[in-house]
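pinned: reference chain
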Amino acid sequence: MAFDVEGLKNLKFDWTATQRNIARQLVPIILFALKEEAPVSERPDKQGGRFRDSIGFRIETTSDRMLLQFVSTAPYAQYILDGTRGGSPIYPTKTKAMRWAVPGGYQFASVIPTRGSTAANHFNKRVADQLAPHIYLSFSKAIVVIST
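pinned: its structure tokens
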């Protein structure tokens, strides 16, 4: 979306180009900060960091706006961000028992008691709070006030 400023024939402002330029500058900074703050499991089998590595971004554009979404492809991301409530045992849905790898083989169970609630980790909100001044400054540099 571009528009002319009345009374100033040579001054044009292209909001779409401004959004793209700012996004080009901010995406790497925000991604880095999110990945730095993301929780990482301390599993000994080198599986730690899968959630952090799953963080990426998506850009949706329409004729008058651009939406940057920072997302995770990890199926358990919701439980990290929102936490869990404990107390409900886990039952298999398609088999008689669940199986998972343990050192030296596999373990089976027909029911798994949950350990309790897991607190939500709002690392994304902490990053947003930390970077908000930088984001606002990026946009304010793009807007010029001209008085005549």
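why pinned: The longest helix spans residues 15-37. The longest strand covers residues 8-14.
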